[in-house]
């Protein structure tokens, strides 16, 4: 039976028994309680297990893509050495949401493996949780497994998704591969390779809490997971998952791309299997929207790619790039079951290739550093070295650890983490120093909050710009010219989520303050930073708080514009585009996002076109408050770095853009006016930044550019559309003139050369000539020698620009010209070397030229005249 056949058989078996066949969910789970990556078939059904939503079907079956790296279930260290572990694998499962329970799960499993898979019942073993007598009795009742092949286990038979979340006792099914594979004694006491676990039936009924307690789930459910590759291995009766028809082509591809055949050494075989396995995880992760980076999922992906590259490069000695070829092999193998792979193949290859190329740039130097550290006889790689490898050479700590382990030594992990923490502390400290929010009023803010509760924000939109409020606090500012005002209610938006704070005025009967900035003094407390224009303001007074409405409107346009831009960038560049930060100010917006290369002019134009087309729909901008879980299910994109509480604001800006956002926005997209991208640049590796303008600002920019063009056209006495052509023709004229000038200079130099040669003293020419660049000066020296080949030395020096110095010496064939320049070069702050009869040198200090001439004269035995 082939891999595809087995996948189909499983699905059909459960479909015939009332299960709905659902597709695999992506590797990035959506539920807030889910782990970093989809690690089991049950992840996508969390809302049903937890009772947050009614399950649309009572019985479901899937073949689910899974990745187990990081977190509670992490298999990466076993890869290549074990016969059954993979970082990426598929899990076949059947699920019951409050429908059948233990008897159903056990009876189905037994029927499928004995009749469907055709396993010999005599080789099957079962384990149950030590407390689960019911499951044990059911196995005896519903299957042919004898009592002696049912074993009780503890924690191993209690499956949990993560540190918290759905869990329950489970029952696992094992296949005895026979004495050749190791010790007898059943799954509980025998060898792991001999007793191959291939199916886990979880009786999902508890919800593990952070405090360790286990309240029951609303219903009793079934979650089973059969390792697809493991089953395949048993069905095809092969030794390891890497010998199945699913993975053999990948191991073959790994042999081809590395030129290393299987069987050379156990360690090289492990490397080949690592390449095959990691190729699958990197391909699927990128396909599902993960992008290599230094945090979260991106870091795991980076670690997988770099681990594979390091293996190929240093363990197998492969110079050429390997990952893209491996991705091709994965796509060829897996696309029939996952057709989107074929569609995304080029993109996936670009991402892995770039990551490989960038790691290869530092790999050599990093390995050298590590080599030096190891060969110094250390028993451990120091934490500082591991940190430098990570920080400067891009070595994931796991890769460092792996290289060290190959040499039988360890890495000082604690030292590494301490160095990381120290770097983070320094970064935070310098951020704090520059952060005005650390101010002596902190206690005052806290007590205001305790007394009056959070500041009420009104005026998110078209309401009046002026709001009546009560002054709660008047505190000293950062310097004597500022005060800080706290109100009960305010129309001022406090800086946050990339949006700048409002400005405006606060007035009472006795005074007027000009608000120059608004930030948060503490979470929930708005701090108006102000300059007193007249009189005084005291706590308890009634106040009128007025924002600068025009400025706010400009900010709103830019903020909603940022959302449209984010959406359009993802449409045009791909779903890997993720916001990395933003600045929404009145005069412009700035948006940072993950992407690996500069945007082309066509991409910029396409993004502008999409955004402006959205603006033209003039759709309403809608804000809704909902729970975080609801928002994530609704597919809202969360803005980077924002902290959201349990209730979040979801903003729909037109039909396409949906994001979590706490900022202020226009009411309808038409209010944004035109949006124009004015600059695109790199801010960090794989991070781009665009600047854009909206409203009249965008129009003004176009006017400015038109004016610049008109000015250029005026200077060229041409029409604007003729400007490029005219510049081209000017440039070619200039090239011709340059050439003419060069010829002229040569002529002058030849004439000068004869003069210099004629003035030789004692067979040597030593002279200062300024205004020549090094090439010009050398040409002159050669011309002097040509004018009089009998000269014993020609030494010229001078400064092209009044500061730098160039020196040249020409001597008779067989002699060493540089010897004449050594002292002279020193005198002008430079050095000279070389062996030939023509030498050049440079210096930085034209003031030393006289001394330099003198030095040459002395060497040549001239009197310096
Ligand atoms: N969730 C269980 C597992 O991953 C069964 O599907 O093993």
Brief synopsis:
With 865 residues, the protein is an alpha+beta fold.
Largest sheet: 9 strands, mixed
Bound molecules: serine
Count the E strands: 31
Uncertain stretches of 5 or more adjacent residues = 639-644
Helicity, as a percent range: 40-55%
Structural class: alpha+beta
Q: Strand content of the residues, in percent?
A: 15-25%
Basic shape: globular
Rg calc = 37 Å
Overall pLDDT confidence: 90
The total count of helices amounts to 23
Terminal-residue CA separation: 99 Å
Structural account:
The protein is an alpha+beta fold and 865 residues long. Helix content is 40%, strand content 24%. The chain is built from 23 helices and 31 strands. The strands form seven sheets. Strands 1, 2, 3, 4, 5, 6, 7, 8 and 9 form a nine-stranded mixed β-sheet that branches. It has a six-stranded antiparallel barrel with strand order 13-14-18-17-16-19. The radius of gyration is 37 Å and the shape is globular. 40% of the residues are buried. About 1% of the residues have low confidence. It binds serine (SER).
What's the structural blueprint in terms of helices and strands?
Blueprint: H1 3-15, E1 20-21, H2 46-49, E2 59-67, E3 88-97, H3 102-116, E4 124-129, H4 133-142, E5 150-153, E6 158-160, E7 165-176, H5 186-189, E8 195-208, E9 216-227, H6 228-235, H7 248-258, H8 266-287, H9 296-315, H10 323-334, H11 340-375, E10 380-381, H12 383-393, H13 397-406, E11 410-411, H14 413-433, H15 442-452, E12 456-457, E13 466-476, E14 483-487, E15 489-490, E16 504-508, E17 511-522, E18 525-535, E19 542-547, H16 549-573, E20 579-584, E21 589-594, H17 601-617, E22 621-627, H18 628-633, E23 637-638, E24 647-653, E25 657-660, E26 675-684, E27 687-694, H19 695-716, H20 723-758, E28 764-768, H21 774-787, E29 793-798, E30 805-811, H22 818-827, E31 838-843, H23 849-860
Parallel strand pairs: 1-2, 4-5, 10-11, 12-15, 23-25, 28-29
Antiparallel strand pairs: 2-3, 3-9, 4-7, 6-7, 7-8, 8-9, 13-14, 13-19, 14-18, 16-17, 16-19, 17-18, 20-21, 21-27, 22-24, 24-25, 26-27, 29-30, 30-31
Bound molecules: serine (SER).
The site of serine has 10 residues, from strand 8 and strand 9.
